[in-house]
Every structure is written in structure tokens, then in C-alpha cells.
Amino acid sequence: MKRSSQPRTLVEVALVRLARMEDSVSLSQVLDGLGRLGLPGAAPRKPEPASAAPEKKAPTASRTGVEPPPKDSKKTSSEASSPPRGQGNLDLAAIEQSWGEVVDSLQKQALMAGNFLASGRPVGYRDGIIQIAFPRSNAYFKTQVESRHRAAVEKALSEYFQASLRIGCTLAAEPAPEEAKPGDRKAALASGEDVEGVRRLLEAFGGEIV
Hints:
Layout: H1 7-19, H2 27-37, H3 77-80, H4 92-97, H5 99-109, H6 111-118, E1 121-126, E2 129-134, H7 139-146, H8 150-161, E3 166-171, H9 182-191, H10 195-205
């Protein structure tokens, strides 16, 4: 560089080479690459040591010589929430909780019987007999369940709860009628719905319907 006519260029080239030293390769690496390609003049390729196969571990046996049984998996949510089965474990609360599933199961077996039973609700249980109450407006459904479809309903209940069950049907008590408010009374008179009230007013004042 001392005798060069362009020393600055040489310095810049040297700096560039220094900056790219990480990308440079040694001569031995170049010869090794040529040897892999089978080119003449390349260094002979060293054989790679054979990798040792992993040793297989022998299965360990317990002290007694018997493998322990696998641990029981956790119960699924459906098993945990299933109602108690068997006549001894059955009560009204369990029947009420599972009533919707019982109706769905019966509808798959006998659609008409399931539809009739859907209008009723369990209201009592004793000695293997489930008391089912139906609204008075659905008295026809009660008659159908306790006569024509009794066998299908009792079979579905017995299979679901795994117990010998029978049914008893009754009509639910209607709620007491609410007392009419003064505003409701006036509205009924104005619309003519309260026929008895209108008749009394006409008799008192000597009027007539026109």
C-alpha cells in the first residue's frame, strides 16, 4: 500500500473485507466442500461416525410383578348430573329434575303419548307410584295418559329410572279468581261484557238496549 498509486482504494477494500469476515470461509472448508462434490485436488472426505442407536429401555415391573391398573378417568358431566337410579334412591325432586328428559325419551318411542304427558307435571311420589297433575283445561290429555297410553308411560318411566313404577293422574287445582278492580268493572260495563251488570242498570233506570 506504501508504493500503491491508490492507497485509499486499498484501505476501503480492506475495511469492506473486515466488515464481512463473518461470511468468509476457511480454506479447509472450501476443500472439504470440493471433496463432497468429488472434484479433483479436493481433500479426502472424512467418514462420518455412525450414530449409535438409542437403547430401548426394558419395561419396568412393579415390586409385586403385576402392572398397576390405569387410573380411573374423571366422570363426565352427564354421569355426574345423572339422576339416582333404583326405586330405593328415587324421590320427587329427582323425578322433577329429569321430567323433561323422560318426556323426550317417550316422544321418541311413542310421539302421541309423549305429547300428552308433556302437559302434566309430577306432584307426588310414594310406594312406586308417581302422581301426575294436569291442568283442568287439558283434562282430555289426562284421560288419554291414564287409559290409552298408560302402559307406554309406565314403561318409559320404569326404564329411565330403572325401577318398577306406576302412575296416577289428577287434575290440578285452579287458582282462585282475582277480585275485579273498579276500573275493570267500568270497562266491562262499557264494552257490554258484563251482561248481568248491564241488565241491572237497565232495570233500575228503565232503559232499553237500542
